[in-house]
Design a protein that fits this description.
1 helix; Rieske Iron-sulfur Protein; binds FE2/S2 (inorganic) cluster; 42% strand; globular; four-stranded antiparallel sheet
Amino acid sequence: MKRGKAAPVPRTRAEFHRAEHNAVVVDGEVYFAVERDDAVHVLSSRCPHRGGPLHLGDVEGGKLRCPWHGSMFPMARLCDQSHPAIRVGDTVAVYLPTGKSEPVPVKTIVRAGVAPA
Ligand code: FES
């Protein structure tokens, strides 16, 4: 069997305006932005335990606590799995995977807890 290159995953551009938002909903999936080591990281909000909303968690001692069952996740590990993002002034831009070639709805949201990027 011959192996070829994997097809690129369709992505959608999303923006965060740092003073106002730190989370975005793309096609029903929530992502949130955090700042760590002078870089912005955009993370999936889906908790690996049972899908809890990590964007509503609290950061304690370098770990993010999931609000549903209290699991703690090291921010360093979460940031290693982040989506590439760039920051220009107060705007953070990221291309998030959708798996769809057609446009998908994008909506920014504000949340409390995790510090805005
Ligand atoms: S869903 Fe996050 S700890 Fe259970």
